[in-house]
Amino acid sequence: MEQLQNDLFLRACKKQPVERTPIWIMRQAGRYLPEYRAVRANNDFLTMCKTPELAAEVTIQPVDLIGVDAAIIFSDILVIPEAMGMHLEMFDGKGPVFDHPIRTEKDAENLKQITAQENLKYVLDAISLTKKELSGRVPLIGFSGAPWTLLTYMVEGHGSKTFSNVKKLIYNNPELAHKILNKLTNAVADYLSAQIEAGANAVQIFDTWAGMLSPRDYLVFALKYVNQVISKIKRNDEPIIYFPKGVHYRMRTTADCGADVIGIDWTIDLAKARDKIGNKVAIQGNLDPTVLYAEPGFIRREAKKVLQSYGEGNGHIFNLGHGILPDIKPEHAKALVDFVKEDSQAFHDNDVSTKVIKI
Ligand code: 1CP
Asked: Catalytic site residue 153?
């Protein structure tokens, strides 16, 4: 068994007792850090993903600079479609673009069947190297996009406000949508299992665009496939986190997906989410990422409200409700981490004598 110096995050995922609430930040390895921008200035984005030394370097930056309780491997959800043969370009200010989106049967047939060992080996190598370089300081999180969120980018070709093309596909040709979703489900499950084998201590499934679906369509096009991914990888002991952004209308059903942790965005109170989810799973979230634009005093008060909303007891992992924005001051991210480390102790039973009495 690996010896971790800080396993608070893993214990919280399993709802085990912790001395304080662990915190990490979605997109913590990214553009808000000058140290990240310095590496990025000399390398294009995909080169960084595909070079284990660079990926490991930027993965560890927020552990050193911000003091988070877990690292998340530097990569992107779009490496799966890229490995399937879609040409990906990353434009500054515009984000990722696939120049030939998937819209027809023929396009779908051209997608390669992939395995992580053959087609995404560079991510596995980045994980092994990062683990070595972290030398047990904090756990490492692996991740993948969920089948539905991957489908949105593959069909739209880029980010979208209306998701018109992928909605056209699911309403006009649901068979084709399900065919691609099945293909993606196999690829995602294999990829996450391989990340765990390479040393990831936990994995997160990002379903960023789940909330673009109606409550019913969410079950049919998103959750169904996440259930399948999780049941394929569940034999592993490593915690699984599912983050379906914008899905407060299906909290109870989502909590049954087999994940150990449900990540939630900031549009629902943690107390309400906890009430709906019950004691089944741990909860990750959910400070509004834009709160980090405010002064440290305000950040502290808002972070406290999040801790209070979850209340006492185990099973809370502090995070933002979505990724950190590129124009946030790093000092503010660091201040948040410090506040959570300090202020969350009151929400856990740290008194040894009372623990003894309870036994
Ligand atoms: O130029 C640059 O440096 C690119 C900016 C960037 C970064 C730093 C992109 C492009 N991806 C990443 C890294 C990344 N992406 C991580 C790193 C690990 C971490 O520190 O968290 C992770 C987990 C992701 C995941 C990801 N990529 C998601 C899911 C999470 C989320 O934020 O919703 C999504 C939707 C993407 C797609 C993507 N990649 C990059 C951008 C700008 C986008 C969003 C595109 C859009 O919808 O417009």
From this structure: yes
Question: Is the distance from CB of 262 to CB of 242 less than 8 angstroms?
Answer: yes
Whole-number Å distance, alpha carbon 121 to ligand 1 midpoint, is 20
- Using a 6 Å cutoff on CB, does residue 34 contact ligand 1? no
Mean pLDDT (the chain, rounded) = 95
The pTM of the full predicted model, rounded to 2 decimals, is 0.96
Q: How far apart are the C-alpha atoms of 300 and 316, rounded to whole Å?
A: 17
Is 40 close to ligand 1, i.e. is its CB under 6 Å away? yes
Q: How many angstroms is it from 244 CA to the middle of ligand 1? A: 15
* Catalytic residue status for 31: yes
Give yes or no for residue 72 CB within 6 A of ligand 1. Answer: yes
Top-level CATH class of 8-347? Answer: alpha beta
Tokens linked to 357 = 């009495």
Peptide bond into 286 cis (omega under 30): yes
Task: Give the pLDDT confidence of 112-163 residue by residue, as tens digits.
Answer: 999 999 999 999 999 999 999 999 999 999 999 999 999 999 999 999 999 9
Contacts of 289 (CB under 8 A, 6+ apart): 266, 320, 321, 322, 323, 324, 325, 328
Q: Is the pLDDT of residue 329 over 50?
A: yes
State yes or no: pLDDT of 355 exceeds 50.
no
The reply to whether ligand 1 has any atom less than 6 angstroms from the CB of 316 is: no
